[in-house]
Amino acid sequence: MKNLFLIRHAKSSWDNPIQDINRSISARGIQDAHLIASKLVSFVPSSYIVWCSKAKRTIETAYIFSDYLSIPLETIYFTEDLYTFDDKDLLKIIKKCKNVHDNLILFGHNEAITNFVNKFGDLYIENVPTSGVVALQFDSEDWQNLGKGKTITTLFPSQFKK
Checking DSSP bridges between strand 150-155 and strand 133-138, what pairing results, if any? Predict the structure, then answer.
């Protein structure tokens, strides 16, 4: 059984005209990331690996989540390959996960995340929002052979705000 936790970066700031990869998260993004990270604690298995895009907003989001999940920062694998908006590229990257790891937490970007969860999950999601988490479970022992999985959890900021 393989479990994949896809986390979309927190809401980014558009205050400064900078390259997309260098955008930080906004004040609302910080609040939403703390909110969702606090809720995710009870869903995450005891062992996992963490991969993260090298975009500034995903790194900042991963740092917030790492506080709640007690993830040592030096264990997070940061890669430019995850700075993708394409679900086919995302699948290729996920398939590189070694089979000794049953649980992968991945911080990335949309459209890749929404399209991926709709292709491989069993619950249609119109849009995975910023700071949103979708957990998928696959009845497979091999990351190379991912087929249709089951959507086991969705955590979106709107679910917890009144």
Answer: antiparallel
As for how many domains the chain has, the answer is 1
What does the alpha-carbon distance between residue 15 and residue 71 come to, in Å, rounded to a whole number?
30
Q: pLDDT tens-digit profile of 109-152?
A: 999 999 999 999 999 999 999 999 999 999 999 999 999 999 99
Rounded to whole angstroms, the Cα distance separating 129 from 71 reads 23
- What is the helix (H) or strand (E) element at residue 76, kind and residue range? strand 76-79
Residues 6+ apart with CB under 8 A from 42: none
Residues found in the chain: 162
CATH code of residue 24: 3.40.50.1240
The C-alpha atoms of residue 93 and residue 79 are separated, in whole angstroms, by 10
Q: What is the pTM of this model?
A: 0.96
Provide the domain limits for residue 141.
2-159
